[in-house]
Fold this sequence. Notes:
The structure is a homodimer. Chain A has helices at residues 21-33, 47-52, 66-71, 89-99, 111-126, 153-173, 192-196, 220-234, 272-284, 296-299, 306-324, 351-354, 375-381, and strands spanning 7-13, 38-44, 56-58, 102-109, 132-137, 180-185, 210-212, 237-242, 288-291, 330-337, 343-350.
Amino acid sequence: MSSNTHGNLIIGQSGGATAVINASLVGAVEAAMKDTRIDGIYGMRYGIQGLLKEDIIDLRQQPADLWPRLLVTPSAALGTCRYKLLEDDPERAIAILRHYNIHYMLYIGGNDSADTAHRLAQAAQHVDHDLQTISVPKTIDNDLPFTDHCPGYGSAARFIALATIDSTMNTISIPWHYPVKVIETMGRDAGWLAASSALGKRNEIDAPHIILMPEHTFNGERFLEQVEDIYRRLGYVIVVAAETIRDEHGQPLGSIGQVGTDAFQHPLLSGTAQYLVELVEQHLKLRARFEKPGDLQRMASNCISRTDRDEAYLVGKMGVHALLEGESDKMVTLVRHTEPVYSCTTDLVELAKVANEQKLMPAAYLDESKTMVTQAFYDYALPLIGGPLPQHAKLEMTRIHK
Amino acid sequence: MSSNTHGNLIIGQSGGATAVINASLVGAVEAAMKDTRIDGIYGMRYGIQGLLKEDIIDLRQQPADLWPRLLVTPSAALGTCRYKLLEDDPERAIAILRHYNIHYMLYIGGNDSADTAHRLAQAAQHVDHDLQTISVPKTIDNDLPFTDHCPGYGSAARFIALATIDSTMNTISIPWHYPVKVIETMGRDAGWLAASSALGKRNEIDAPHIILMPEHTFNGERFLEQVEDIYRRLGYVIVVAAETIRDEHGQPLGSIGQVGTDAFQHPLLSGTAQYLVELVEQHLKLRARFEKPGDLQRMASNCISRTDRDEAYLVGKMGVHALLEGESDKMVTLVRHTEPVYSCTTDLVELAKVANEQKLMPAAYLDESKTMVTQAFYDYALPLIGGPLPQHAKLEMTRIHK
């Protein structure tokens, strides 16, 4: 299809939702509404799963005040999915797209979603349906390759950095009550989110003191030594651990067999944080507890990074522009500029290169201990989380003497 | 001591910290600085435990810009304690107060702290030391009697209400991924915090769908029936459970023996939320997971209720005023007015009546199921959480037809 003919556009959201994925949707819809080459603007409900069921809604039939409100609404308003295409799905999807006269497809998602968009692009070529597909990056995990960072990460990172600052305030107010606290973040393969807990840390005393990332094998003895050493120096220890940390056998901490089976005789998954709490209590005889903010990491509407939201809007808009320029089978990427100040423009990369590839934390972002970030990580991540983090006030401890 | 002689004032913070307990400290210090009858303004570090160690700091020796910054800083800047007085502690404490020429004491805390203040007042009388003690209410648990509500609760309630709204957005975006979610709130005896999860609920479909409160015995069969019923109707279920829920034998859910013992051969406490997740997965074969925001409930600096902060400041200030009016052995209370709009003034109640008494959720705030709140609870709690909660935008689901 040449880039000046008409057709319908369909937009989908896929994978884990984020606090700003709707900003990409709004950016895309607003760009599409400005161009007369696009007729219908459709949404697939629950991503490709909805498309395969022909669960398609009309994005032109929305109240005028919806889009600015959706811009600041977390989660995926279209609904999302975590669905791996079956063998004959691409062909079925193309038949449906053809039926609805859809020639433009924008798919907002992470690695798996890029794979889906790529396979649809290939299938369309195979059956000779004029279809352009563009993928728009989105993931709190920040693990997509070729893009400087991923929309969604900045807001989740802001949440985790602030949660670490605030929650630690409680520990400091009464350190001996529960001297060891473990905060469990999301992150099955990449440590970007766990690492972001350090973004409010200004010195060695500030939390977190130990960050456990999926990229590095857990060594229990070393961990306990670190905890004990920090406890001796500060009187408390804040640990941030990604949800999946593996031991030297590749077994995730807190998985089957490590904590026992429950009364119902099925394996008990205690999770990383609870495992670490048990380990500390058992071996160091220190009171420990864990926190697991869960989906709030993705969704906290009062932790949205303005930068993240603006960039999510930008990649949505530029996705539509790319379609209108005749591009296909590509993902929008963010390109960082640092002069005169931080800013991002966009580029495109071929989906074949992106799909199912993961970008893990580079070695340069971790110090020798592999449990703390370096200045290079701060330089990378601080511009992404929007405004500065709060610096909480402290009393001067001027003693009264007898 | 008559109310127009001079003396030093000491202020302490005690019990679990809150997001606004420092506002009470600032209110007290600013009131004290305005009155020439007060000489030194001292702070005990870590409450009565610090006093007993003569760990006393000078609150007049602080940078001028500290107080407005501390007003918006969560947690207890003086440090706090959870300490039950030993038999000879009150007399020792009085000797120290006498030594430092302290005749005014303000103690910001919950039930146990009221008991401490009361015992010091009695001990001072016993050994004939001129001491006035006033207790200033503070607790996220909202369980102090005689006061309409407790400073600290409004901000924690705001956090929980918002966390429930936001986290549910994720479930709605992909309901079948984990159709059952359990959010665990604080609350060992009283359900005020768990109940506050409903403050953003505007209809039957909105979350939460089931609230489990410590005041009511857990019935597993009934719970599973409720979960199944809601799942059939909506496709997902959001449960909010207080950290301590007891079964018909008075045993807390997820405590010793109910989930098994771990590999280290010591009892495993899985906690309420994890117990409920296991129960649902085992009996209903539905994927379930839990979230446990932990100390963030007390400390979230971006969820502070303006009303809560203003009232925390007020009770601190009025505590000092009460001391200067010659009052002693009393706690400041909040008195609600509803005409023409919500507002609070303060009063005093004798500490002997307050100490170790708990105010649980009244029957009128719960419906027949005991797992959902009534309109009366909304009328009570909504004014306490500050501004309105966000109403997230939703797309109109106008279908495209073939």
